[in-house]
């Protein structure tokens, strides 16, 4: 593949936001397909942010110029499929600016304001195969190529020692960071192996849920029984609330406060059934808002392909296949009825995507044929280069959570061992979203590792 060329800067608009932040909104143009530059372009959206200072004595032109040349720290968002929040809402902003960086929040291609994936746009591409071919271009390999193209653009006029930048990857952003460290080119675990590990942690989190809210053993069963009797319930925005979709609420179990948020929703539902014998619009809307896959379709469509790290691997609906082999998740088989009595609490799934998602979300329904094509596709480009990771010279600092329901700790430890020189902070006191829920502890520890030498 040809060398990456700088992205083309289309527009730059600067303004101030509360909290003494100087934010610049940027649009770039990059190739849609780096292997075929003639295939057209995509737009990328990003925001740079640095401190805004208004001293009594105004800065000199030289001082102002030096502010624009602060080293970059790029935030790689989780997902996949989500754009960045406003810089003032990010927990990383304060830490990074106080450490002398300027931040770049770059929406991945297909997300946020970066030529976002949506059903209407996909429809214009043609049939399922054309849609699937387009979606193949939205994995970590091209996200990294985009990032490098933007780096070359933004640092073109900087001195050589400022042309490099640092990256901070959260969740899926960590996958992207490893691909970046590899300089584009696999990892070591298939989708099936990943899900066999994460289902175990999901079962543990279900046990924690029912220990904290034992009354929900009956409540969850009664809500599920009602949905089964009604053969699903239509949702306000379209799609259906079925037994299967209800039991995907367990994705919240992997986050701080997640047990409580699911309990609050179950309480709302069972109260409706007790008082009215049906689910109110209020409860159904609250359920819809809990899992907004309709507005972030990449999350559902490309979630399993992120584990296809080299040619020859197909995702093949791995979460569904593994779940069907586990008795506690027999509800994944729609032909099996609910048990007539509660011998075992109904178990929620975790961060898994299933074929039935594409039957119960209106936006995803239209994209199901393309999703089926991608699930069978096995000619993916390699995402990682283990030889390059083994000779890595870039300083790497990571936080790894022993009780993370989304990223299996042992697999994460194996991955970290592939990266030469990495330093890892491990704890059993945090969950997957700790960067947001326990910001001071996580970022404080990471920056201490960066600043302090252990020898």
From TrEMBL:
Similarity annotation: Belongs to the peptidase S33 family.
Could you tell me which Gene3D superfamilies the record lists for this protein?
alpha/beta hydrolase
Which organism does this sequence originate in?
A: Lasiosphaeris hirsuta
User: Which GO annotations describe the biological process of this protein?
Assistant: proteolysis
Q: Which domain of life is it from?
A: Eukaryota
What is the protein's name according to its record? Alpha/Beta hydrolase protein
The record ties this protein, via InterPro entries, to: AB_hydrolase_1, AB_hydrolase_fold, Peptidase_S33, Serine_prot/Carboxylest_S33
Alphabetic keyword roster: Hydrolase
Task: Identify one Pfam family in the record.
Answer: Abhydrolase_1
Which GO molecular-function terms appear in the entry? peptidase activity
Domain AB hydrolase-1 intervals: 72-185
Transmembrane stretches, start-end: none
